[in-house]
Amino acid sequence: MKFTAQQIAGILEGEVIGNPNAEVYKLAKIEEGTPGSLTFLANPKYINYIYSTAATIAIVNKSFEPEQEVSTTLIKVDDAYKSFSKLLEYYNQIKLMKSGIEQPSVISEGTTYGDDLYLGSFCYVGQNVKIGNNVKIYPNSFIGDNVEIGDNCILFAGVRVYSETVLGKSVTIHSGTVVGSDGFGFAPQEDGSYKKVPQIGNVIIEDDVEIGSCSTIDRATLGSTIIRKGVKLDNHIQIAHNVEIGENTVIASQTGIAGSTKVGKNCMIGGQVGIVGHITIGDNVKIQAQSGIAKSLKDGEVVQGSPAFNYGDFAKSFVHFKNLPSIVKDLENLKKEK
After folding, report:
1. Is the pTM of this model over 0.85?
2. CA-CA distance, 158 to 148, in Å (whole number)?
3. Architecture of domain 100-314 in CATH?
4. N or C: which end of the chain has fewer CB within 10 A?
5. What amino acid positions are annotated as catalytic residues?
6. Active site at which residues (predicted)?
7. Where do you find CATH 2.160.10.10 in the chain?
């Protein structure tokens, strides 16, 4: 899909300096611009590239005044960075603007769906599923029985949504993620074996949640595993049965949260964090990467380490951790002097 400088300027409410009919069909960094590409200049550190870039069109701030000849068509805007971000969002919307039901695919008995559904090839939709308006389900996805999917949801290729799951509006789930698989529940037996405990709850994901690729969110044993409004989950995250994640909490990759733990609102959890089950994490808590959380945390705490403790104390202690070999050597020398 091609766009002219004039069309782009119309979207961004900008001014064209150069050829209004110049066409672009791809995006590029300014230092890697090639003919047919659109780029932007916002950081003054990259200003030299505006004179050498081969990009056809560049978005710049209105304050930019070239000090030498510029061959690229310019679009002047109030804020080049924000305008380019707006354009990326617009481009992404166009790219994802698909509709229709591709074949082969299966829509089972009792399922209803709204306007502008896109269902990719090799998808399976179970019985009595309710799908809202403008939902995009990409190829090779599975939707189990009695699932509810709200308006404007996007499920990328290879997503698995088990039965009884409820998705709110504007939920995005990336490829390879599994929502609603069984929680990890096994009862030890007298003979040393384990008997599986039936997992008959579900998963509820509220509005405006985004979940990265290859993450897993387990269904509850009873009741619901709940991901509250505005939560953002990275790739490769494990959310166990009956966990609740509070509104607008963000969690980085490779974090695991064990069963029945409650995480508060507006928390920030770094990568590779492990959180034990049956504890409560307060609101506005920050957990640094690779921390191990073995007890409940109060509102506003900032922690690091394994087991985690106050971040300031950890930073001070780390200085001594690094110096342990020399400290031990000094102690040994003191013993010899005695």
Report:
1. no
2. 18
3. 3 Solenoid (2.160)
4. C
5. 241
6. 241
7. 100-314
